[in-house]
Specification:
Helix content: 10-25%
Strand content: 5-15%
Strand order of the largest sheet: 1-2-3
Largest sheet: 3 strands, mixed
Structural class: alpha+beta
Order of helices and strands: HEEEH
Number of helices: 2
Radius of gyration: 25 Å
């Protein structure tokens, strides 16, 4: 569900204070934050925020296109390592001596020759 326009975008207070302090000093420094729920504001453009993904901090450089999105969208929390079923089928096919899925048949060309 979307947030009310009357309330405005949500940004954690501690993060907003840090960004405003960097803007006041005209300083570009990496800020570490655990606040994945905070919305990216125009004040943050040009800064690099290190967003925690549960294991480590992912550096996120803020651009204009990111305004309105949440910080957590740019620091994925899960690592995709492939589909286990597909890998098991490929191993079984290799063990049986069959060609891998998607390979051309051993008999010759994949398409028949045109008739004259």
């Amino acid at each position: 569900m979307a947030r009310s326009l009357k309330k405005g975008p949500f940004v954690d207070g501690h993060l907003q204070k840090k960004v405003e302090a960097l803007n006041a000093r005209n300083e570009k420094k990496v800020l570490k934050t655990w606040s994945r729920r905070s919305t990216i504001l125009p004040d943050m453009i040009g800064h690099t925020l290190a967003v925690h993904n549960g294991k480590k901090f992912i550096p996120v450089y803020i651009t204009e296109q990111m305004v309105g999105h949440k910080l957590g969208e740019f620091a994925p929390t899960r690592t995709f390592k492939g589909h286990a079923v597909k890998a098991a089928l490929e191993r079984a096919a290799a063990a049986a001596g069959a060609p891998a899925a998607g390979a051309a048949p051993a008999g010759g060309a994949a398409t028949p020759a045109p008739k004259s």
